[in-house]
Design brief:
The protein is an alpha/beta fold. The protein contains 15 helices and 11 strands. The chain folds into 2 domains: about 230 residues, Bacterial extracellular solute-binding protein, family 7 (D-Maltodextrin-Binding Protein, domain 2), CATH 3.40.190; about 80 residues, D-Maltodextrin-Binding Protein, domain 2 (3-Layer(aba) Sandwich). β6, α6 and β7 form a beta-alpha-beta unit. The protein is globular.
Length: about 375
């Protein structure tokens, strides 16, 4: 009996020692604020992974640019200043010219259903159907695991804007394809990151911003935004919110990588659905604070229609200008995936659980560890 107890204790001690030896605290950073949907969903995701690995993996997160802004994040991950983090591809096109094409694909998004379909299409193509994208990330020593979308973008202004004519001369914080669109409306695009947006508008360096309505709350723009044109202009559909340093990723055990992958569909669905709900709530709160929703006039509708129709030609031309030789194929493949996912979303409706299951079935069950 004594011998059996001794053996049992020894085995238990060995297992505990092995578990302690394999335990790892993973660092993650994002330039976004320490509040909001992405922060909450990221913490939820890491909590589930930690539980699934029996505490072998724990996570420490840094927010609000504590480890670098949107321009620096890719380098911070690749050089392992941090183990993992989130990026905005539109800010680092030189690093990932093919992958950054997806930042230009969100112009046709004009509804919540569009947003969900386009987001899933980006994730599927980037992870399973774009070897050039994978190679670009790996050349930067990072492993992309999840992309999400924001709620559709609107034009939100500090001064009163009641018509397209009122946009004349307005300084608008706009990134990517939204910049040329603002010029078409007679406005002046201003290159300001989301982290700098509040201060820029507060100080008059920007009169308006093109962005998610959720920013009215997330970035406190609702404190002074007085008008929002009630028509989505586009969407940012390729936010890379889970990327790991490639060496760190390869250093995980097969079981740890499986746990990290298994929880990603829930992570994406939480961000996408909560982001839409947050946008609705932020709009109502801003309206209560005096913000006016402005019906788009005929000129606005004409400009937006032309803008959406030019999506694919513009994206291909921009990418080819950056040396991408497969731009046409990438755009064509993406449109096919949008059609596929639009059908899936039409079938499941605004059902978060069903969306999670579809992401798992169509994408993550096919992703190798």
């Amino acid at each position: 009996m004594y011998l059996k107890k001794t053996i049992a204790i020894t085995v238990a001690s060995f297992a505990l020692s092995a578990s302690i030896a394999s335990a790892r605290e993973v660092t993650y950073a994002h330039f976004l604020p320490a509040t909001g949907t992405i922060r909450d969903a990221t913490v939820d995701y890491f909590t589930r992974v930690s539980e699934a690995t029996g505490g072998e993996l724990t996570f420490k997160t840094f927010w609000a640019g504590a480890m670098g802004g949107p321009v620096e994040m890719m380098d911070s991950i690749g050089s392992q200043v941090i183990d993992a983090g989130g990026i905005v591809d539109a800010y680092i096109r030189a690093n990932i010219p093919t992958a950054a094409m997806f930042a230009d694909f969100g112009q046709p998004v004009s509804s919540y259903a569009d947003m969900l379909a386009y987001s899933a299409a980006v994730t599927e193509q980037q992870l399973l159907g774009c070897p050039e994208c994978t190679a670009e990330y790996e050349n930067n020593n990072v492993k992309l695991l999840a992309t999400t979308a924001t709620a559709p973008y609107y034009i939100m202004c500090k001064p009163e804007v009641t018509s397209t004519a009122d946009m004349e001369g307005k300084k608008v914080r706009a990134v990517g394809t939204a910049g040329p669109l603002m010029k078409q409306m007679g406005a002046v695009p201003v290159s300001v990151t989301t982290a700098e947006m509040y201060e820029a508008m507060q100080r008059g360096q920007a009169d308006c911003t093109a962005g998610s309505a959720a920013w009215l709350d997330d970035y406190k723009l609702g404190e002074f935004v007085k008008s929002m044109i009630d028509e989505p202009i586009n969407d940012y559909i390729s936010s890379g919110n889970i990327l790991f340093n490639l060496d760190v990723w390869n250093g995980f055990t097969d079981a740890q990588r499986a746990s990290l992958i298994a929880e990603l569909p829930s992570f994406i669905a939480e961000i996408n659905f909560e982001g839409l709900a947050d946008a609705d709530k932020a709009i109502e709160a801003a309206k209560a604070n005096g913000m006016q929703l402005v019906e788009p006039d005929a000129e606005f509708q004409t400009i937006i229609t032309d803008f959406r129709n030019g999506t694919w030609d513009h994206a291909i031309k921009t990418a080819e200008g950056s040396g991408v030789t497969v731009a046409g194929r990438v755009a064509e493949d993406f449109q096919a995936l949008v059609e596929k996912w639009s059908g899936i979303v039409a079938e499941i409706g605004m059902d978060q659980d069903a969306y999670t299951e579809a992401l798992s079935r169509e994408i993550y069950s096919k992703l190798p560890n």
